[in-house]
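Thread: Newbie trying to understand structure tokens

Hi all, I'm a second-year student working on a class project, and my supervisor (Dr. K.) asked me to get a predicted structure for one chain before our next meeting. I've only ever worked with sequences, so writing a 3D structure as a token string is new to me. If someone could post the tokens and maybe explain what I'm looking at, I'd be very grateful. Here's the chain:
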Amino acid sequence: MSSAPAALAGLKVLELGQLIAGPFAAKTLADFGAEVIKIEPPGVGDPLRKWRMLKDGTSVWWQIQSRNKRSLALDLRTPQGQDIVRQLADEADILIENFRPGAMEGWGLGPDDLRARNPRLIVLRISGYGQTGPYRNRPGFGVIGEAMGGLRHLTAEPGRVPVRVGVSIGDTLAALHGVIGILLALQHRHATGEGQVIDVALYEAVFNCMESLLPEYSAFGAVRGAAGSAMPGIAPTNAYRCQDGGYALIAGNGDSIFKRLMVLIGRPDLANDPALADNTGRVARVAEIDQAIEAWTLQRPVEAVLDALEQASVPAGRIYTVADIAADPHYAAREMLQAIKLADGSSLTLPGIVPKLSATPGSHRRLAPGLGQDSEQILAEMGLTPAQIAELKARGIVAGSD
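---
Reply by user tm_fold:
Sure, no problem. This is what the structure looks like when written as tokens:
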């Protein structure tokens, strides 16, 4: 755990909401020094605490998503809980929520209410379909955003059922767009003194990454379909079978790279063919090119293929499992495998922090909190007396770690 200076030190963030998108955005800010208070429902907490594989009753995912945060277990359905949020928001720089549109307003905690009290407050709102439009009230998880945003249609082998990417990419893309919005809003606030509201829709975050999908349809009526491991319209780039049953991912789509690749595989005729000198010509004959490359890779195991391609300066790689990642020296050298000690003394390896900043790097300063671990401390910092805190706990409005 580092003591280096933090880029966002001094920023106060309130995290409301749960699971992935909003908490991932807050986690990113916390990694770079922001003070994040995560508000969770008493008794149950964020459902992510129980998702996937558990260690001593808590998801190991939780240790990533909530590192560097403090936990306040607070019932937002009560007037007293809502008033505590208002007081916290009065002193906050940023509030992050990912409830369905209208939920915050129903509690009297909408941006208009909070920003009337604290005009400098920046509010990030992440939802399935955004705060406006005919679909705003529909429930929307990341997988729905991936489908509506155009990604799911592309993730399949031709003629096969579209599949998930394998992780909650829609939520993560929305979270990262939210962080970008926060940084932009902070710059605006620096100039004007005013906060603002950032409206991120899951489907729009996915759609923003769909490259030329829409202009191709607009200009040519083309509906891009699933292409498996290939990249339609860019050649050659694909996954090629090797002698040992593995696959080599080869990206030979640069003009000079293509020539080097063809020379390497013993096809100078293709390397010197004027019709293949640029991408347009190669796309027209992509099946022929892919067949030539795979005829070469099938004669060699994956590692021999990759070694030869590296020597020829052709971008290539193999498909990593998490076991490959955990054993890879480059991951280790880049501090992307960070071992931590849990409260029980056992060790756990977490992903490192991205991006890498030279002067103000991110750091893992604090373990993910237990439910309500920091409730009493946070309330005391607000000025509540021990007796007031005890009363809130007795009424179930607040829960502590005991």
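A couple of things are worth pointing out once you decode it. The chain is about 40% helix and 15% strand. The longest strand covers residues 35-40. Feel free to ask follow-ups in this thread.
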